[in-house]
Amino acid sequence: MSSEQKVQANRRDARRSTGPKTPEGKAVVSVNAQKHGLVSRAIVLPEENRQEFQELLEGFRSQFQPQNPAEEFLVRQMAAADWRLRRITRIETGLITDRLDDLRDDLELDGPEPEPADSDADRQFDQDTSLMGRVFWRNSSD
């Protein structure tokens, strides 16, 4: 347990600390508690493609043509749910693939040959999917 002197020093230090001042610093600390982004207030995470989400949203708007704020709300909810389901699918794919690779290594088994990516964008997508699985795995054990 902390001594009273240490508690008082921490309180004094906290009064002087006002947090980050720059927009960049504020953006960094805004996701400090984020583990997977599935219930985040922000629909599109900083690492994701905001333009791709906008295209998804516009597709829903075009299909359903909301006529009032309630309908617009529902269209946005559908787009957000679709976006998060896509994220979950990528996390699941990355997580299972990563765990299978680790298990094969532990058991000294050969795995299937990965299919070569068609483009740099595909390679980046595959790498990000793997990283999303690893992040979820690490954060779920915290």
What integer value in Å does the Rg equal? 21 Å
The quaternary structure here is: single chain
Separate helix tally = 5
- Low-confidence sequence ranges: none
Main beta sheet, described?
A: none
Shape designation: flat
Mean pLDDT: 83
Class derived from helix and strand content: mainly alpha
End-to-end separation in angstroms reads 23 Å
Question: Beta fraction of the residues?
Answer: under 5%
Total DSSP E strands: 0
Helix content: 55-70%
Features:
single chain, 142 residues, mainly alpha, 67% helix
Describe the overall structure.
This protein has 142 residues and is mainly α. It is flat, with a radius of gyration of 21 Å. Helix 4 packs across helix 5.
Give a nutshell description of this structure.
By secondary structure, the protein is an all-alpha fold. The protein is 67% helix and 0% strand.
How is the topology of this model organized?
Elements: H1 4-16, H2 23-29, H3 50-64, H4 69-107, H5 120-140
